[in-house]
Design a protein that fits this description.
The structure holds two protein chains of two kinds. Chain A is mostly helical. Chain A contains twelve helices and two strands. In chain A, strands 1-2 form a two-stranded antiparallel sheet. Chain B starts with a strand and ends in a 10-residue tail after the last helix. By secondary structure, chain B is an alpha/beta fold. The interface between A and B is large, with 36 and 49 residues.
Chain lengths: ~280, ~325
């Protein structure tokens, strides 16, 4: 028999809570490292996007015989799009969200509900963990870009700091938006189509494929009232020096505002949805 | 009192549709919903340290009851209190005191060794290192899986995975443990190991166990008390042996005569009792009272070369019970 009596804690300390969730990130690293080929392919997947964009815009510039589009030279445009693809990759949570939808539909949510963990935070950590191995590769790529193209990438050190802050907001906001969509699974079961449609819209409307500055004015003005600019356009505009310094604070405030709103909406939907949950299986 | 349920009811809204593409298209435009009552007005009280079996045919409502008790479902009506907590509020102090093992669902990460999932649970439950290691070592040794700790979960056999799931669920030494079909799909050795483990754990830590199982040997070995759920209602709540006895009180006697009695004695016995005679072997399936009378007659006639008294297999008994439980309703408490 065990001599040491078990102490059941009424609550964990803040450090223990942090430990609990950051350990999830560690577990995803361990899990990801089990499949070497998947990591290697995933890390270089972004290159295919860059190559396609390079060839596409090269063709446009050549056939139009232009040296600039909407204030972008060809080189500046490619660098901007590269950053858009990197940020787009880092904030993409669709794999985690598909797993969450399946979890609700097939009863796999059970294992989270019976343990003292937050489903929202747990999956946020899973999402960060899945993507964080890519952070390492992209860190070197971005550093390389900053070294070779200093006039277009992080013109000042403050740009680098603000990029990281707005990137963190983007990652969180993106997750919160996916979480909100996942919650519809409590009512409709299969909502993969919603996530896929959102992803496709995201690719275009966040400026990943075409910079937002090149959108028609009406569309740009409409998107200004949505959270979408804060997902890709804001961090990339700051990184490439296209956003005036005086707009940085308001951009961060608005990014955080949308993060709070979307999170609250997700929490409300989740608390209503969980009452309908049928926990299939068993 | 560990667990109390009061008038617990759960109704699901379901729809049925015809098979085939036509049925699917029809259902796309119009669905006819109906209410299905999985659990109706179930009231229970379970004390600290009890091991209680929950029995019932497929679809009776056993798992629905378990899910309501751990807060996976919200009831349509009624209430559950577990050590003062309402399960579906899912307060962390409550979740740290309970554990659920569902036979066909797992909490272990599939692609990495179980030992990693155990470490994650240590963090989730906030267990101190020495407590965690001690508990883990004890559980691993009891279930005999030490050499499998660092093998990826996907490479383990079903029995090994089940044992790892049980370990993961007990690392925080919960006060209340719900096992939903814990031995499903396991071989007889693994089943026996888990039964022994449950009894040992209950004795050592006075944890309360609620077990659902279709294997009657599980129930017979582990549970003194059973609750039978039939069509969503509590049908029986009491001692399992009494239930078995009520359902099928017959026992089988095999009596080997040293020397066969005279024919007129055998005829006289046949007038009173129903039995079969094959060479020197007399076999009879009788209730207790008749059995006692027959035995006392036989012993006055002859000293047997051998004799045995067997109860009919529990599986057979419960099979006849579940085929028509209403037949046995009278007298069951």
């Amino acid at each position: 028999m065990i001599e040491t009596p078990m102490i059941i804690k009424a609550r964990l300390s803040p450090r223990e809570i942090l430990d609990k969730y950051t350990y999830v990130i560690r577990m995803t690293w361990i899990q990801t490292l089990e499949y070497k080929a998947n990591i290697v392919v995933g890390m270089f997947a972004i290159l295919s996007g860059v190559i396609i964009e390079y060839l596409l815009w090269k063709r446009i510039f050549i056939t139009r015989g232009i040296s600039e589009i909407g204030g972008f030279t060809f080189q500046a445009l490619i660098i901007y799009i590269f950053f858009c693809l990197v940020v787009g990759q880092l904030k993409s949570s669709w794999v985690t969200s598909i797993e969450m939808i399946d979890g609700i539909r097939e009863g796999e949510l059970n294992k989270y509900l019976i343990r003292p963990i937050s489903y929202f935070v747990y999956h946020l950590m899973l999402f960060i963990g899945h993507n964080s191995l890519y952070y390492l590769v992209y860190f070197f790529l971005i550093t390389g870009m900053a070294v070779f193209f200093p006039e277009w990438v992080f013109p000042g050190w403050t740009h680098g700091v603000m990029f990281l802050i707005t990137l963190a907001i983007s990652v969180y906001l993106s997750y919160a938006m996916y979480f909100l969509m996942v919650c519809f699974a409590f009512w409709f079961g299969e909502v993969r189509a919603l996530v896929i449609a959102y992803n496709l819209a995201n690719l275009v409307l966040t400026g990943q494929m075409v910079p937002m500055q090149l959108f028609p004015e009406g569309l740009r003005n409409f998107l200004h009232f949505t959270p979408l600019p804060y997902l890709v356009d804001v961090p990339v505009s700051i990184a490439t020096g296209r956003m005036p310094v005086e707009m940085w604070v308001s951009a961060i405030v608005m990014g955080m505002f949308w993060s709070v709103i979307i999170t609250l909406a997700g929490m409300i939907l989740y608390s209503r949805g969980i009452k309908r949950y049928e926990g299939f299986g068993g | 009192m560990a667990i109390t349920t009061e008038h617990l009811t759960k109704t699901f809204r379901i729809f049925k549709r015809e098979a085939g593409l036509r049925g699917a298209l029809k259902s796309f435009f119009h669905r006819k919903y109906e209410n299905f009552t999985a659990l109706a007005d179930v009231s229970l009280e379970i004390g600290d340290g009890e091991i209680v079996g929950i029995l019932g045919e497929n679809g009776a409502g056993k798992t629905t009851l378990i899910k309501l008790m751990v807060g996976l479902l919200h009831p349509t009506n009624g209430n559950v209190l577990i050590n003062g907590f309402t399960p579906w509020e899912r307060k962390h102090p409550f979740l740290r005191r309970i554990s659920v093992v569902m036979g066909n669902k797992n909490q272990l990460w599939w692609d990495i060794p179980a030992s990693e999932s155990f470490l994650l649970n240590q963090k989730i439950y906030g267990l101190e290192d020495d407590q965690f290691k001690q508990t883990l070592n004890e559980l691993v040794d009891l279930l005999g899986v030490r050499e499998k700790l660092n093998v990826q979960v996907r490479r383990l056999s079903l029995g090994e995975r089940m044992k790892m799931e049980i370990i993961a669920s007990l690392l925080h030494r919960p006060e209340i443990i719900l096992l939903d079909e814990p031995t499903i799909g396991l071989d007889v050795i693994a089943q026996s190991k888990i039964r022994e483990f449950v009894k040992y754990y209950n004795k050592q830590y006075r944890s309360t166990f609620l077990i659902t199982s279709h294997y009657m040997n599980d129930i017979q070995e582990m549970c003194k008390r059973v609750v039978v759920i039939h069509k969503g209602c509590k049908f029986y709540d009491g001692n399992f042996d009494i239930l078995v006895n009520r359902v099928n009180p017959v026992r089988k006697l095999t009596f080997e005569f040293d020397e066969l009695p005279l024919q007129h004695i055998l005829d006289s016995l046949r007038n009173q009792f129903v039995f079969r005679l094959n060479a020197n072997f007399l076999t009879a399936d009788l209730r207790d009272r008749e059995m006692n009378l027959l035995l006392s007659r036989l012993f006055t006639l002859n000293t047997p070369r051998s004799f045995s008294l067997e109860e009919l297999p529990v599986e057979e008994t419960m099979k006849s019970f579940f085929a028509n439980p209403e037949k046995f309703i009278q007298g069951l408490g």
